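subagent[fold] <- orchestrator: predict structure for attached chain, return C-alpha cells only, no commentary.
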Amino acid sequence: MNVFIFIFVVCLYALYHVFEAYTEISIERQLAVSAVLILTFGIPHGAIDHVLFFKKNTVSQLKFYGVYLGLILLFLVGWLVEPFWSFVFFLVLSAFHFGESQLNDLKLKRFFLRPVLFLTWGLTLLLTLIY
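subagent[fold] -> orchestrator:
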C-alpha cells in the first residue's frame, strides 16, 4: 500500500465518522460528497488499469479489450436478469480488485494465499465502508 492509498483510506474513514457524528447532514449532501470522492479518486484509478495490465502482460490489445468489453456486456445482461446477484458479484469482484491493487507487490511463499489475501483485504475495506 502506498502513501496515497493510505491517505485515501484514512480520509474515507474520517468522512464516515463525520457523517455519523453529524446526523443532520442530509443524505443528498452525503451522496454529493461521496460522488465527488468517487469521481476524484475512483474513476482515475480505474482509468489506468489497462496501462498497468500491459506493463506486466503480453496479451494483444484486441484480446484485452475484447475480454474487457465482453465482461462489461455480460455484467450488464446479468444486472438486467438478476440484479441482486449481479450486485453481490460486482462487490466481490471490486473487493478483490481493490485488494489486488493495494497488495500486488506483496511477496508470499504460497501463491494460493495471494487471492485469499486480496479478497479478504478488499472485502474488509468495502464492508466496513458499507457498514
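orchestrator: received. Logging for downstream: The chain has a mean pLDDT of 81. Helices lie at 3-21, 27-47, 49-56, 61-81, 83-103, 113-130.
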